[in-house]
Amino acid sequence: MTDTTSETVRVGELGPTGAFERKAQDAGNHRVRNLLILAFVAFAALWPLVHENTFLLTMGTLVALSVIGATSLHLIIRTGHISFAHAGFMGVGAYVCVLLVMKLQLPFAVSLAGGAAAAAALALLIGPVVLRLTGKYFVLVTFLLGEIIRMVFVEWTSMTGGSNGIFGIPAPYPALAEPHAFYYFALAAALLCVGFCARILTSEVGRAMDSVRESERVAQCSGIPALQLKVTIFVIACALAGVHGALLAHFLHYVDPSSFGMVDSLNLVVMNVIGGMNHLIGPIIGSVFLTILPELLRGYVELQRVIFGIILIVVMAALPGGILELTARVRRLLASRRS
Questions:
Q1: Residue 252's closest CA among 54, 48, 57, 58?
Q2: Burial of residue 286, with CB atoms counted within 10 A of its CB: 0-12 exposed, 13-18 middle, 19 or more buried
Q3: Is 11 helix (H, G, I), strand (E, B) or coil?
Q4: How far is residue 321's CA from residue 274's CA, in Å, rounded to a whole number?
Q5: DSSP state of 299
Q6: Which of 57, 58, 179, 268 has minimal CB crowding within 10 Å?
Q7: CA–CA distance from 11 to each of 6, 8, 14, 27, 328 (Å)?
């Protein structure tokens, strides 16, 4: 159902008073989410000025880059699909961008656009086929697709360096060689990506995406070209994934196939699940959580993976709607205490 239809159903079910209270609650939740976003942006922009630490700057840059990948995958999730090939498209963008910079000596901006375009072209080629699948079939096919892309990176040694990867990747620009500069560059890229995704999700296209996710057949009966819409979003999301991979390669000064495997795709999915899959702020929260948590557990070398897994299970079991669900629970608790 579209937002308008679902709103009409809620009004009929709850009555005028209940519908008014529901709208007030939704507006309150919206304000809380906006405040969280503003607080996050302010903190991300100001903390490097207060505390200079190369390690923390590196973690902050990785979080910003992860936000690009997680929010781009969020677009696909909002159409009702979960892709396990997203890291593969990151790899396409990374390798194409790096090869254009290092072999053809093209400017970084042109190479970045080329990497994004290559990932988008591959998505456009396979999207009309794989997006006809649903559920576990789509998950399985995208998992296999991601592994095929990774194996191409491994076997095409003349271009990708095989398992050894490509070393000595330069910074995008000389001014971005410093950790502070690249951090703010990555933060700006993440904000642009989030803003772009938010614009899509709050437009008519976003409402059509939600309709397709709820019921593709009903959406088609309403005149929404479901397959065309899903392919378009898939192409956009994969292009953004290519940007993520390219920026990551230039930040690490190294790229190899192991960075674009199934585990990396799974991490992007978990970022969405653990943060909250129903709002764009969810993958942002999940990116922070999933990037920083392993570093906090490095002191427990032998039990790091066990503790990490237990924490993920506990969080997802206690908060089925993601960490974002905490804000709704706190609001309900405060409202019940006032009443």
A1: 58
A2: buried
A3: helix
A4: 8
A5: T
A6: 58
A7: 9, 5, 5, 16, 21
> DSSP string of 251-273?
HHTEE-GGGGSHHHHHHHHHHHH
pLDDT digits (tens, 9 = 90+) for 315-331: 878 877 788 777 777 77
In this structure, what token pair is assigned to residue 255? 């790229």
Q: 166 — phi, psi (to 5°)? A: -120, 125
Record the tokens describing residue 189, joined without a space: 């890229």
Q: Which two tokens stand for residue 6?
A: 């679902």
Per-residue model confidence as pLDDT tens digits over 224-240: 999 999 999 999 999 99
When pLDDT is cut at 50, 70 and 90, the band that residue 313 belongs to is confident
| Residue keyed to tokens 């042109």 | 110
Q: How many other CB atoms sit within 10 Å of the CB of residue 10?
A: 14
DSSP secondary structure string for all residues of 151-217: HHHHH-HHHH-GGG-EE-PPPSSGGGGSHHHHHHHHHHHHHHHHHHHHHHHTSHHHHHHHHHHH-HH
Distance, CA of 194 to CA of 71 (rounded, Å): 7
Per the CB < 8 A criterion, the answer to whether 172 and 188 are in contact is no
Task: Please state the pTM of the whole predicted model.
Answer: 0.86
Question: What distance in Å separates the CA atoms of residue 258 and residue 66, rounded to the nearest whole number?
Answer: 16
